[in-house]
Amino acid sequence: MEQNEQPVFGIEKLYVKDLSVEVPHAPEIFLEREAPQIEIQLGTSGRAIGEGVYEVVLTVTVTAKMQEKAVFLVEIGQGGIFRILNVPNEQIEPLIAVACPNILFPYAREAVSDAVTRAGFAPIVLQPVNFEAMYMQRLQEQAAAPHPTEVTIQ
């Protein structure tokens, strides 16, 4: 195999694409002593932005509530630009759905913890995530659907 045919997987840039912090009931919420319930949602998206260049965004949304009252909401879109060359097409989607989010997650975790702390609350430390299991579950759900939708990377 020639040098220019070697598979390439590299990080071009890591960045915060979007960051939002909301504390809708401040300052009164800071007088509450009850511990809030924390809900965490994760999502990933990927798209081609050039020949062999992909943008992947890991979105993490952390919502804290006391009963039905919102305490805070933090959402981050941690982005990355990745170079993927000389990789078979069937391996690109798993790289974008598993490998790239694994790289982005520590940065998103730090940004969430920092944003929650700056909003005046105890830091939230996100537990490790198995992106491979999430990807495999999504594939199984699509295969079980009555009309499976094709998984495509834009």
TrEMBL record:
Gene3D superfamilies noted in UniProt: SecB-like (3.10.420.10)
Record note on quaternary structure: Homotetramer, a dimer of dimers. One homotetramer interacts with 1 SecA dimer.
Family: Belongs to the SecB family.
NCBIfam families, sorted: PRK05751.1-3, PRK05751.1-5, secB
GO biological process, one term: protein folding
UniProt xrefs under SUPFAM superfamilies: SecB-like
Alphabetized UniProt keyword annotations: Chaperone, Cytoplasm, Protein transport, Translocation, Transport
GO terms for cellular component: cytoplasm
Protein name: Protein-export protein SecB
Main location: cytoplasm
Keyword Transcription assigned: no
Gene designation per UniProt: secB
Cited function: One of the proteins required for the normal export of preproteins out of the cell cytoplasm. It is a molecular chaperone that binds to a subset of precursor proteins, maintaining them in a translocation-competent state. It also specifically binds to its receptor SecA.
InterPro entries xref list: SecB, SecB-like_sf
PANTHER family in the cross-refs: PROTEIN-EXPORT PROTEIN SECB, PTHR36918
Subcellular location: Cytoplasm
Origin superkingdom: Bacteria
Pfam family membership, one: SecB
GO molecular function list: unfolded protein binding
